[in-house]
Design a protein that fits this description.
single chain; alpha+beta; six-stranded mixed sheet; 7 helices; 23% strand; globular
């Protein structure tokens, strides 16, 4: 009997110790608890903070490598700026340029509070390409070594190294007008009941208030040699460094920019006052009218890309490239698409 009791005691102690170790991995403790569970102080500090900079282009952007994987702390020591949707602490990064397509995963950690993330993406000239928010970031319940979090993934295109339209800068912040809102997460009891296939005990799901401070885990992955492309922004290469108005695709978070060839005039239907504005992903923001003839080298490049897309089975991409080339002045893109599809069926 004594041996049995001793065994049980040791087992309970081991389980308690293991759970404590796992908890340290799932939910940050110590200094991070002051960040996650101190919402009132965070709001007071934000109201008193002064803007760090005159505009976004003057932010101090931190260069990050293609294999970046880090837990980021946003607290009172983080710089503050007044964005279009209010004042917020922020983190600013310069993305790697000489890499393959980049897959970025962002996970805002949930404890007693939540930092509701919003992302501004910009090209090399600090023109906004897209803003990512609730359309990308979704609640993910605790599982294994991952705690409750708001997580999102998106992809940075690197088809053409040196393209001035490539997304080059990333800013993480939260909308001040969302600080009075909450996010409901799944209770631990409900998650446990689901995993054991038993009746839900009926415990209410926790309601988490939003905070100006928080923890965000950010991972950057070089997709060279892989095929996963989530929420991709696809910039068009330009023969000259000339800014054009983004043209939105109906697919969420996937924008394309009409190419500006050296011998073609690009005319946007969007008024000049809206140039560089953030465009919703469900509407077409600009239409291009090509005049003249596309350069032979550019036309050959488009034809190769069309053939490559068809051979890899991506007909949708091939059709998009064909339409893009035609708008820019190509006279052979459509026939190249037809021939490539016929050849692929042989």
């Amino acid at each position: 009997m004594k041996a049995t009791r001793l065994t049980i005691a040791l087992l309970v102690a081991a389980m308690t110790s293991a759970c404590s170790s796992v908890d340290d991995l799932i939910v940050p403790t110590g200094e991070y608890k002051a960040v996650l569970n101190n919402r009132d102080a965070a709001i007071d500090q934000l109201h008193q903070a002064q803007n760090c900079c005159q505009n976004i282009a003057s932010f101090a952007f931190t260069p990050i490598p293609a294999n970046f994987d880090q837990l980021l702390v946003i607290d009172g020591s983080t710089p503050v700026f007044t964005f279009d949707d209010g004042k917020s602490h922020f983190l600013a990064f310069q993305l790697p340029q000489n890499s393959g397509d980049l897959k970025i995963t962002l996970a805002a950690q949930i404890d007693q509070t939540l930092f509701l993330p919003k992302i501004i993406m910009m090209d090399s000239q600090f023109k906004v390409t897209r803003v990512l928010g609730s359309d990308v970031f979704k609640y993910a319940p605790a599982k294994l070594l991952n705690g409750n979090r708001l997580e999102g993934e998106f992809t940075i295109d690197r088809t053409y190294i040196g393209n001035p339209n490539n997304e080059s800068y990333l800013v993480i912040y939260t909308a001040e007008n969302k600080l009075n809102e909450t996010t409901t997460i799944t209770s631990e009891a409900k998650l446990m009941a689901k995993s054991l296939a038993v009746v839900d005990p009926g415990i209410k799901d926790p309601v988490i208030p939003h905070s100006p401070w928080g923890l965000v885990k950010m991972t950057v992955e070089d997709l060279s040699g892989t095929s996963g492309l989530e929420n991709l922004y696809k910039p068009a290469y330009q023969d000259t460094i000339q800014a054009t108005v983004p043209k939105a695709n109906v697919a969420p978070n996937k924008l394309v920019i009409a190419p500006a060839a050296t011998t073609a005039a690009v005319v946007a239907t969007t008024p000049a006052a809206n140039q560089g504005a953030v465009l919703p992903a469900t509407s077409v923001a600009a239409t291009t009218v090509a005049t003249g003839t596309m350069l032979a080298e550019t036309e050959a490049m488009y034809n190769q890309l069309i053939q490559k897309a068809v051979s890899s089975g991506d007909i949708e991409k091939a059709m998009a490239l064909s339409g893009e080339a035609e708008r820019a002045g190509s006279g052979s893109a459509k026939q190249t698409l037809v021939n490539a599809i016929k050849n692929s069926q042989k």
